[in-house]
Amino acid sequence: MGARKRISAEKRKEALKTMYFAKLQNVPTSPRKMRLVADMIRGMEVNRALGVLKFSSKEASARVEQLLRSAIANWEQKNDRKAEDGELFVTKIFVDCGPTLKRMRPAPQGRGYRIRKRSNHVTLFVDTINTNDNQN
């Protein structure tokens, strides 16, 4: 690795130490379905987002709810205190494509149709509203 790459990688790692996030990788759901759930809670206060996820009928919402609880716990661990009501917000949430499993399904006249079993990675950032104002 070159010097410039190493320096930028170290800066990125230092920046992540001050952020509060959780990752969920290799979720066996298509990214498109997961993005629908992510769009529901983007920018919300965490207690309200937990309520929305709990009563959502989508299968992916249970996984995102667990991820949000993990991000809240990470924030509490780094700050050595419990989160108060109305203090934490979902600042960023994004869904990236994961590995795709390629399978074949028998089709008429000796053909085979391709089936793509998609997966995704979800990254969720939480922070207080005061920290967001200071960064802008």
Describe the structure.
The protein has 136 residues and is α+β, with helices and mostly antiparallel strands. It is 46% helix and 29% strand. It has 5 helices and 5 strands, in the order αβαααββββα. It has helices spanning 3-17, 31-41, 46-54, 60-79, 129-135, and strands at 20-27, 88-97, 101-106, 112-117, 120-128. The strands form 2 sheets. A 3-stranded antiparallel beta sheet has the order 1-5-2. A hairpin with a 5-residue loop joins β3 and β4 (112-117). α3 runs antiparallel to α4 (60-79). The longest helix is centred in the middle third of the chain and has 20 residues, at 60-79. The protein starts with a helix and ends with a helix. The mean pLDDT is 93.
Give the uncertain stretches in residue-range form.
none
Which sequence of SSEs, written as H and E, runs from N to C?
HEHHHEEEEH
Radius of gyration in whole Å, from Cα? 19 Å
Biggest pleated sheet: 3 strands, antiparallel
How far apart are the termini?
32 Å
Q: What is the gist of this entry?
A:
By secondary structure, this protein is an alpha+beta fold.
Which helices and strands appear, and what pairs or packs with what?
Elements: H1 3-17, E1 20-27, H2 31-41, H3 46-54, H4 60-79, E2 88-97, E3 101-106, E4 112-117, E5 120-128, H5 129-135
Antiparallel strand pairs: 1-5, 2-5, 3-4
Helix pairs in contact: 3-4
What are the main properties of this structure?
two-stranded antiparallel sheet, alpha+beta, 136 residues, 5 helices, single chain
